[in-house]
Amino acid sequence: MSALLERPPAPAPAPPARTGLRGPAWVAVRQHRPALWTALLLAVLSVGCVVAARVWLGSAGAVVSCGEGCERSTAASGWFRWAENYVGGATVLLALLVAAFTAGPLIARELQTGMYRLAWTQSVSPARWLAVRLVGVAAIATAGAVLLAATFRWSRARSQEDPLLSMARSWSDREVYPALGVTAVGYVLLAVAVGALTAVVLRRTLLATAVGVAATGGVSLFFAWVRPYLWPVVEAEGGAEVNPFTASSDPWIVREGVVLADGSRMTYQQCLDTGFSKSPCEPGTTRTAVTHFYEYHPESHFWPLQLVETGMVLALAAACVFAAFKVLGRRHA
């Protein structure tokens, strides 16, 4: 009877639900907290500099009168140009920083010191260990690239309204073009992939960092060289009235020169190399017609060029990631 009156034991409390990062992702974040906080601080400072400069410029103006018929730029306009150049340069150089971090501290250092064995003995496969690191750094780098590129486009929309602020910086300039569109994201993802491949192949922190940065920079320079030819150019021929600036406010001129009497073309650079006064480019010579030619990209070609280049860069990044997993799997099968 007493047994029937006894209270049943209270059920054990349910374990608290685990939220947030777990496993190798949590370990990676804990290991690289200083780098993550530094990246966040730099991103906030970059965006803050541009926003503050634009607010100051809006209140102070770009120029101030210094007498009759005299104008000079204000301190606000100089600060705004500096901030815009800083953000544009940071967007372009972000891929090199991502390649250095991925190749060195994130992967190669653990392979060199043997720290990876601790994770692999806790039911974490080599493929999962590498995938967690790549996904994490790719997500953070993509967010940073999108933030910087959006800030740069926002500031450039203001500077293009004033010739004094734009300083004749075209959308096709090497330090401007990659920071204006989706290529910024493509190159940081390529940096992650190249860094991972160099790390698993070389397994030495300093060597992998150097090779990863050099390879990423080399790919960037290669595409900067072939970029004008990734999309068909617009061609124009005619007399002095033919000018690409009449068809586009900011054309990217790829080639320009004169059409000779026999139909062949000679660029102005070739004219200078042979001596302009001695070349058939000199007006009045029997070999020269009055026809000029231009091969250029109008502003409407910006997004086709961006998308083609980004697609090629992402394809190369995918190949590097595939190779990195293959190398890791063969060495630690």
Nutshell version of this structure?
The protein is built from twelve helices and six strands.
What does this structure look like?
- The protein has 333 residues and is of the alpha+beta class.
- 62% of the residues lie in helices and 11% in strands.
- It is built from twelve helices and six strands.
- The protein has helices at residues 2-5, 23-31, 33-60, 75-113, 116-120, 126-159, 163-166, 183-202, 205-226, 244-247, 268-274, 302-331, and strands at 63-67, 70-73, 234-238, 252-260, 265-267, 288-297.
- Strands 3-6-4-5 form a four-stranded antiparallel β-sheet.
- β1 and β2 (70-73) form a beta hairpin.
- α3 packs parallel to α6 and α8 runs parallel beside α12 (302-331).
- The longest helix is centred in the N-terminal third of the chain and has 39 residues, at 75-113.
- The chain is globular and about 75 Å long.
Which features characterize this protein?
4-stranded antiparallel beta sheet; 333 residues; two-stranded antiparallel ribbon; 6 strands; alpha+beta; 12 helices; single chain
Structural class: alpha+beta
Mean pLDDT: 79
Uncertain runs: none
How far apart the termini lie comes to 64 Å
Question: In percent terms, what proportion of residues is strand?
Answer: 5-15%
Secondary-structure element pattern, one letter each: HHHEEHHHHHHEHEEHEH
Number of helices: 12
Order the strands across the largest sheet as they lie in space. Answer: 3-6-4-5
Radius of gyration: 28 Å
Largest sheet: 4 strands, antiparallel
Q: Outline, from the CA principal axes?
A: globular
How many strand units?
6
The helix content, as a percent range, equals 55-70%
